[in-house]
Design brief:
The chain is an all-alpha fold and about 300 residues long. It contains twelve helices and no strands. The protein has helices spanning about 5-20, 25-50, 55-90, 95-100, 100-105, 110-145, 155-175, 180-205, 215-230, 230-240, 245-255, 270-290.
């Protein structure tokens, strides 16, 4: 049984460590650079489009274009958050073992489970603030410049937060088992495989109406299998559905699949439940693995 006071203390130390190493400062500077570039590009694109849109059809196309631009802006934020989640936690335990820091920390009346949960909580707080701030800024820019509002930002944010926490939990689990470099190679490769599997599944759906559906079924099965192994890309696709306007969903549906990075259907309850269970299993596995590890 973990003691909340010790968990919160480790979480506070985790945040202080990120600040002292200037990780947060570097992340803020780079992120603000991206936000500034997005706002500048969005502004110029909007002004130029208004000059050339005189008919009703042109204005409807303009709305669809800026809905797509907003969605791509959030898509980049989602992948920045994914890389940040993995980067923060890839050496959360292994690097502390290598430097010998854990010998001093665990010499105190601190349980190993409390150290793991505290680390996880500290990183989860960082990811939560990052996703909320960055996505919020993108949506505010779209609202102020073009007057575009996404249909359901709350559900989209919740799914993006679940994805970020899921990735950092997986990386934290790997850090209790492997050296930092090996863990980094594995988790970043898995992230790339999840993205690639999403593309494969998208192509499989496009081929469903073909005469021979063998290849289509195989591609769909590959996508589903990888989503079970790491449901990060599936969670993003679910989030993207709640960021799309009804007109955009209609256009993508007519286009027989639309854009391979987004989804025209909402996430299933099974996906959300599996993702929540995934986080619990990885966190529990990290606690058990760290308890059994010889320091």
């Amino acid at each position: 049984m973990v003691r909340p006071g010790y968990v919160l203390q480790i979480a506070r130390f985790t945040l202080q460590e990120a600040i002292s190493r200037r990780l947060i400062l570097a992340g803020v500077v780079i992120s603000l650079g991206y936000i500034g570039l997005f706002a500048l590009g969005f502004h110029f694109a909007y002004d130029k489009a208004l000059e050339n849109s005189t008919s009703t059809e042109a204005r409807l196309s303009l709305g669809l274009a800026f809905a797509t631009l907003t969605l791509f802006g959030v898509y980049v934020v989602n992948y920045l958050a994914s890389f940040l989640a993995l980067f923060l936690s890839v050496g959360a335990v292994s690097s502390e073992i290598d430097t010998g820091t854990l010998h001093a920390v665990l010499a105190r009346p601190l349980r190993r489970s409390e150290f793991i949960v505290g680390r996880w909580l500290g990183y989860a707080l960082m990811i939560t603030v990052y996703i909320l701030a960055m996505t919020g800024l993108i949506l505010v820019i779209a609202r102020v410049i073009a007057g575009y509002e996404v249909p359901d930002p709350i559900r989209a944010l919740l799914l993006m937060l679940l994805e970020g926490v899921l990735l950092l939990t997986l990386s934290l689990f790997g850090s209790t088992l492997m050296p930092t470099l090996a863990n980094g190679v594995i988790v970043f490769t898995l992230l790339g495989l999840a993205w690639l599997a999403g593309i494969i599944e998208f192509v499989g759906r496009l081929l469903q109406n073909a005469a021979d559906t063998t290849a289509s079924d195989a591609m769909l099965n590959i996508g589903i299998a990888v989503s079970l192994l790491l449901p990060s890309d599936a969670l993003w696709r679910g989030a993207s559905y709640y960021l799309e306007s009804p007109s955009m969903i209609a256009v993508l549906g007519v286009a027989r699949g639309g854009i391979p990075f987004f989804s025209t259907t909402p996430p299933t309850t099974a996906l959300i439940l599996w993702s929540l269970a995934y986080v619990g299993l990885m966190l529990g596995g990290a606690v058990l693995a760290f308890k059994a590890r010889d320091l």
